[in-house]
Design brief:
2 copies of one chain form a homodimer. With 326 residues, chain A is of the alpha/beta class. In chain A, helix 1 packs across helix 3 and helix 6 packs across helix 11. A 7-stranded parallel beta sheet of chain A has the order 3-2-4-1-5-6-7, with helices on both faces. About 4% of the residues of chain A have low confidence. Helices cover 51% and strands 12% of the residues of chain A. The first copy, chain A, has 2 domains: 209 residues, P-loop containing nucleotide triphosphate hydrolases (Rossmann fold, 3-Layer(aba) Sandwich); 48 residues, no CATH class. The interface between A and B is large, with 79 and 79 residues.
């Protein structure tokens, strides 16, 4: 893998051209730059802007152990069989794809390692000022630029940031497994509201019917406007490749609803809005630390610890300084 | 429970006085106000400032299923036996304490439900502009104000925000359980670096020795300056109350090191700094949405979706508007 960092605009446009032609090294390099919050990010984003919105983005989330990676793997198989080019972004720290943090490099999904129509990347938001909310859509845009028809964003369904990222997809799949009060935990974690399609995975296990009924019951209780989407529930045993067509069918149905109702545009605008906000917040956050070369924040922190002031009063002082420093 | 919202300064100082006297309803009310990001938050923070830093703050984190709640429960028991007043904040969406999101009210820890020396609260950051990083320290301050000697902050060890919150404690406990590659997963999730004390829970299970050795091995590989803290590893079977004294001993040892090395002050300043930053970011974020009554952000989002601009260029325009709106 090339370790040369692009330093000029010419290099960025060269990288983007190569990614457009499907060069996996160029794609990998661009995702790395995006993930690390490279200073060239604005240029990369500008170069990719024309290709935005060309992929169907599927979010996939659920508690650790429900079979997210296996299901993603199976989805990729079915989508590839249809001839789609597929990208996978795994922002799940418990995912086997997400070796990045330890290995210093991505781990490719075993089954699709030699398939040139599949890009798989682990994602981490470390070093990216805008966090996951800015890094993930930027990486999606790289994969769109590289010609992916579908991008699957896999996140762990614990942690607000991670749940939020999955919820910003065109279609959001929430995986559950029988037992362990998983359905209830999903509600607690706030992932019920974001699901367009529920997948009861490991549906051959005891308790799968109960989980299925629980979810159907919760959906029945939910209030919906006429014409609004009613979440689908499908059963699967991803480890045995069972029920995957049902998942894809439900996703297709949701996609048709999105297109017909105008909801697709609204969702995508919402996604863009969250991304823009995250970038703005990242920029503003950088300014906070640089007020008075950081001395102001350090002094205020000490004052709070000593009880001389409180964090809200300290924040007001910093805000005044940020305004004055312009 | 009183549902009357304090509307004036006199009400806030009354609430704080009652909390100081140990009235559990006043404590609960203050935590609720803090959690929801109530407009009175700055006043509450100011009233509590003098009592800041009086409690020892213990963070406790780990993957779902490692026994966090059981361990917290046991820690409370041992600390109570010492005569300490204890507060617990559960920001773990998979915690049985964290019924808040479903039940609309906190669920008290069963064993300690009638003990007036224990406050237990689930926490959610919804509605709080500064997120968990601002809501949690603010709630800690309420419990300090209420005379807690120790505050345990339990968070799920998946999700960057949740891990970050635990890492801001005086002492951070990371729980692991044998099997499931948990040790490796901990590293991936970035929770190895934040642990002051590792607890190998469920130590009666197969694989506990291997997990213990793995962790010791990773600690041995870590580079440390002379005088720096070397993470301790203890074994426990929290469900049988075994090994809890060992955990408390390790926490005490770390506490002595913190005090002796000056690290305590540094950690607490860091915690205050993160909190101040989170509040500032929350305020700035509110401004982003209000630029041109929100129309600017909506228009820019549409431009990004249509490929007319990219999110970085859009962010720059918003930043310019935020500056101009002052």
């Amino acid at each position: 893998m090339s370790t040369v960092s692009p330093r000029r605009s010419r290099d960025v446009s060269d990288l983007v051209s190569r990614a457009r032609e499907g060069d996996p090294r160029a794609v990998a390099r661009l995702v790395t730059l995006v993930e690390s919050g490279d200073p060239l990010l604005p240029e990369i984003a500008a170069a990719l802007a024309p290709y935005a919105g060309q992929a169907q983005v599927i979010g996939l989330t659920g508690s650790p152990g429900v079979g997210k990676s296996t299901t993603t793997n199976e989805l990729v198989r079915v989508l590839r069989a249809r001839g789609a080019r597929v990208g996978v972004l795994a922002v799940d720290p418990s995912s086997p794809f997400t070796g990045g943090a330890i290995l210093g490099d991505r781990v490719r999904m075993q089954d699709h390692a030699t398939d040139s129509g599949v890009y798989i990347r682990s994602m981490s938001s470390r070093g990216h000022l805008g966090g996951l909310s800015a890094a993930t859509p930027a990486a999606v845009r790289v994969l769109e630029g590289a010609g992916c028809d579908v991008v699957v964003v896999e996140t762990v369904g614990v942690g607000q940031a991670e749940v939020d990222v999955a919820s910003l997809a065109d279609t959001c799949l929430v995986l559950l497994a029988p037992g362990m009060g998983d359905a209830i935990q999903a509600v607690k974690a706030g992932i019920l509201e974001i699901a367009d399609v529920f997948v009861v995975n490991k549906a051959d296990r005891d308790g799968a019917d109960a989980t299925y009924r629980d979810i159907q019951g919760m959906i029945a209780l939910g209030e919906r406007e006429p014409g609004q989407w009613r979440p689908q529930v499908v059963r699967a045993v991803a480890s045995r490749s069972e029920g995957i067509d049902g998942i894809v069918e439900a996703v297709d149905k949701h996609r048709a609803w999105l297109a017909g109702s105008g909801a697709l545009t609204l969702r995508r605008r919402r996604r863009a809005q969250v991304e823009i906000e995250a970038i703005v917040v990242g920029r503003l956050r950088a300014r906070i630390g640089s007020v008075g070369d950081g001395a102001e924040l350090t002094a205020l922190s000490a004052d709070v610890v000593e009880g001389r002031t409180d964090p809200y009063a300290a924040a007001e002082r910093l805000l005044a300084r940020i305004a004055a420093d312009r």
